[in-house]
Amino acid sequence: MKLLDFLLDFLLFCFHSMLIGLDLDQLVAMASQEEILYEDELRSRYSHLEKMTDLVAVWEVALSDGVHKIEFEHGTTSGKRVVYVDGKEALRRDWMFKLVGKETFSVGGTETKATINIDAVSGFAYEYTLEINGKSLKKYMENRSKTSNTWVINLDGVDCRIVLEKDTMDIWCNGKKMETAGEFVDDGTETHFTIGDHDCYIKAVSSGKRREGIIHSLIVDETEIPEAAE
Q1: Most buried residue among 83, 86, 152, 200 by CB atoms closer than 10 A?
Q2: Is a pLDDT exceeding 60 seen at residue 17?
């Protein structure tokens, strides 16, 4: 129906154009342009449909430099494998003889190692699992909650995600590693940094309990910020 409508519209357009004095060459050029636009539209729709059909898994991974979205396409006919990180293509294999296996790639500015495992469950059903730094996503996130702290605060109208890596004392803000200066104080240590015109520091004090270890608190402009759950 679309093609028939297009032809009818074109014939009416030709008749109208002859009335206003357009020559044949101009008509052909304009018709060619319409055809190209129509083909591009079909190609775009087909590509979008193909992606929707082959998209089999989506994960969100919280790292020091931000929360990253990982999407995986798996064509179970061709074996095609495509990985997107934050909407950008990170890996592509258009043809794979084996439908099971694994794909390894890096995520974020820290180039964290990630692996997608493809396992057959039964018949033509497949299971997809994500590993980060050699650990299952669940294990990695459990371990990360022990080795890092995260705070979220709005400064000057901008949401800031601040992350402390306890093992290195590195501090990140919205994907940028901050310049810091540490100092000893009476009850522990303070690691100072700035965000815009705001003075910030992370204070580390002993909890006095063996299991809890050291407690880290974020202070921005002399106000303590509650920790965020991820």
Answers
A1: 200
A2: no
